Amino acid sequence: MDLDIKKIKEQAIKEIEGVKNSEEWEQIKNKYFSRKSGELAKLLKDIKDVSEDLRPKFGAMANQVKDELEKALDIKMSELKYKGNGNLERDFIDVTLNVEKYKLGHLHPVTQISMELEDIFKSMGFMILDGPELESDYYNFEALNIPSWHPARDTQDTFYIDPLTSSGHDPQLLRTHTSPVQVRAMQKYGAPLRCVVPGRVFRNEATDASHEHTFYQLEGLMIDKDISISNLIAVMKELLSGIFKTEVKVRLRPGYFPFVEPGFELDIQCLICGGKGCPVCKQSGWVELLPCGLVHPNVLKYGGIDPKKYSGFAFGLGLTRLVMMKYKIDDIRLLQSGDLRFLNQF
Ligand code: PHE
Questions:
Q1: Would the pLDDT of 290 be above 80?
Q2: pLDDT of residue 52
Q3: What pLDDT does residue 83 have?
Q4: How much distance in Å is there from the Cα of 291 to the middle of ligand 1?
Q5: Which atom of ligand 1 is nearest to the CA of 176?
Q6: 99 in any annotated domain
């Protein structure tokens, strides 16, 4: 009996090793494991006839052989699969099947429009600059002709990181506009100068459909000899036809900003309602798109440029608002929401 078990095992192992394809594998498996006629089933039957005291020993041996053979069969199957001789039907890979593609992200609509604008300005010889979002009181206000007592500060409340001036250093704040880079650029590059500054800005706002605490602007600055309003208007026209690729109605109103003189508000007719009135244009039919003006002599001086020799224009384009106009988005809060149902549309 003892020998029978060993013989069966040796024979089985030899046969399993010789298997060359899945049909043979199936045959061998049946030969040994078939419930009715398999060699192992027969063996177990024989064990019943063994004397009671030897039965546990043979039972254990038979079980061990069963385990070993199962393992050998498993190994053989993986070997066959590896060599490609396995069950072709089961292992078939349809290489023409459409697998789910990796979902690639894309640029945020504000980034897209910013890059588009950068291209337009680069083509007109403007540099693309950036500046710190955590800005000093000096660059954000003081150097832009907005001293600490100036009421214009009230229209640009922001988040103060360190409002204490007692320590003697310049208070730090989240910049309320990209204009501080005007003076930074003048100090760094001098005149003549042509640059645009796209970037993120912050205000302490009560948020609604057209106000956010965080939004994007693109500052523009051109300084040279004899720069006048007509240069400003020419550049603005080039810009608007570049962005909207269609005729957009605009109007110029006088506007007040301490760092320009004279100052203007350039409005475009609301592209969402076509001028009829909606929440975005506050029912007026017009959207403030672009404040602009000629750089105030004091600001040129802060930038180290002689206002008697040079003049310039500056504008501050609301990038976020521009995106809203371009894609007819009626709630500014969507842009910062990170909501993929919204973002995937761009
Ligand atoms: N910095 C101003 C604002 O954010 C906009 C502006 C820029 C106005 C340049 C005039 C010239 O409100």
A1: yes
A2: 84
A3: 72
A4: 5
A5: 4
A6: no
Domain region containing 265:
109-343
User: Is there an atom of ligand 1 within 6 Å of 199 CB?
Assistant: no
Tokens 């214009």 locate to: 152
Closest residue to atom 7 of ligand 1, CA basis: 316
Is residue 181 within 8 Å of 131, Cβ to Cβ? yes
- Answer whether residue 334 is part of any domain: yes
Mean pLDDT of 214-221: 96
304 within 8 A of 187, measured Cβ to Cβ: yes
**Total domains present in the chain:** 2
Strand (E) positions, 144-285? 160-162, 172-174, 193-202, 214-224, 250-254, 260-269
Confirm whether 98 is domain-assigned. no
Q: So what's the pLDDT on residue 329?
A: 92
What is the distance between the alpha carbons of residues 251 and 267, in angstroms, rounded to a whole number?
5
Most confident of 64-78, 260-274, 304-318: 304-318
pTM of structure: 0.69
Using a 6 Å cutoff on CB, does residue 177 contact ligand 1? yes
Question: Which residue in 200, 230, 210, 209 sits closest to 294, CA to CA?
Answer: 230
